[in-house]
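Lab notebook: predicted structure, single chain.

Context: the supervisor wants predicted structures on file for every construct in the current expression panel, including those that have not yet been purified. This is the next one on the list. No modifications to the sequence; it matches the entry in the shared construct table.
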Amino acid sequence: MLKREVWVEKIIPAFILFSLWLDGWFFPLILLPILYVLLIEKKSLGWLGFSGRELWLSTVISALIAFVLIGLYYPIFLHYFSYMLQRETIDNYGIFLDVVWYPVYEEICYRSFALTHFAEPDKSHASTRNIIVNLIQSLLFLSVHKHHFSTPLVLVPIFFLGLLNGFLFLKTRNISGCIVSHSALNSFALLLRYLQSG
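Prediction complete. Output recorded below exactly as produced.
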């Protein structure tokens, strides 16, 4: 029989991560990892990266990540220009999802919750285990972007967003910068579509 610690620290978090991976549209689902950490594991939200710890460093690095990924995304957008213009129209709900909801939901799910439970946050962000877990969470993150499978080059900046934000989280243990870089990249993609459709 497995010890309670294994269930609490690994098995149940794996089920939670799987649930989050299945559905990003059901907004209350984001409470699942937060309540689990608070009520079952009896840890603070700071453990998930909601703290002032390394906030300045996290913000500065996230700006660099966003800048690099925007530079990578722009030529890809131009390559798929005609296809991108055929996608659904941009409305307020779509802006909310892309700029606010998905950055918060996906960063909590893939960076914050996954990395605190399956990586070794107290070790170097470049340790073998942390690199492997970071690669796995980046691939999971990539897999939820099925709507981009018809434009495979778009998957490149998405993968690097997951990977770089994973290293950022492991280095700073602060989720704020991850949310900022994610939101910035999504905002830029929306802005390009808006400018080119007008």
